[in-house]
Amino acid sequence: MLQPRTEPGRRFTDVAESHVEKFAARAEAHDRAGNFPSENFAELAVSGALGAFVPESLGGLGLDSVRDWAVGLSRLGRADASTAIALNMHLGASRMLVGAWRGAVAGGDEAGAARSEALLKAIASGNFVICATATEAGTDFLRPKTTATRVSDGWRLDGRKIFATLSPIANLYVMNLRVPSEEGDQMGFAFVPADTPGLVPQDDWDALGMRASGSQSVVLDGCVIPDGTIQIAGPWGSWTPPVLMGRTLANLTLLGAFVGVAEAARQLAIDAAQQQSKPKFGGPIAGHSGVQHLVGEIEIDFAAASAILVDTANELDAFLEHQGSRTPSLDDAHECMKQFQCAKWIVNEKTIAVVSKAMDVVGGGAYLSAHPLSRLYRDVRAAPFMQPFAPNEAREYIGQVALGRLPDG
pTM value? Predict the structure, then answer.
């Protein structure tokens, strides 16, 4: 079991642990119905988990460590992976808001600091949830089709986001979009209140796994937001250090949720080996060499996934501490992304293998919908689809960075 190493991380992990029993008990029903576990998030709001990254001075848990963020998510992944990945989207966005607040305070921007502080206090109180959504059909993160067009009273947004995880209860959407410009199109990030006219959730989430994540599509049709609610991040279609670091930080921790899924499957396999028996073995199947070998492979795979996650998160924590408030170089930002992609590749392969082998230990009963392993298998298969990058892109990217041929986009 992964362990936190900072005091705020221990607080966050303890809070996550306190929810495991109830969330696990509800997981099957939500998976079967494909509905969002609103009660889970009501309880996360009360326990303070939604305000994990909010500084203690503003009422939050004061979490800062990437490693401990992933560790806490691994606890929730053991119980309900849908809840874990949905919470991660909110935490990634709230962490960025903390950075904006600190930057405004350091820069003497009293108005900006006050706005960010009000939002952070609302998050810490459990009254404000952020949905960070980026995925669109037929394109990638750097080339969003959703477009912001200048109008007299601000910006008009038009487009469609898919996989908008956590959106059923979001108060605010943070999304990437294309901002046309005569000097060259730019990529921007828009902050869109959920009640903005023209923002229409589609209630269309129906997937193989992560069925309770609320990852519906969201349509923006003539959705108008005021000036000051779009931040330009750089050229459309090109990596910049802040965008690379943002994608690395917000997505590395998702691996914690999948390690949690594997941990739950591992325990189910061990329990089955010790409790199930067959006459020809004269006792529990744990006495059979084939089962022992399978459990041994599960242990090796789980150890590999856990180790690469913790090692990569530790390195990222150390890098962020060394950087302080400075923007990293493009080379360093790509190196961080490369290390994340290496970890993602290993965690994806090993956690899927753990759950699959756990099903082999349990036998045919694990194939039945009523067995928790069938849900765990469907949930863990979502891991490779989490962007960036897809498996057919990751190796190319890793090789390019290792060879010093940094991809522009």
Answer: 0.96
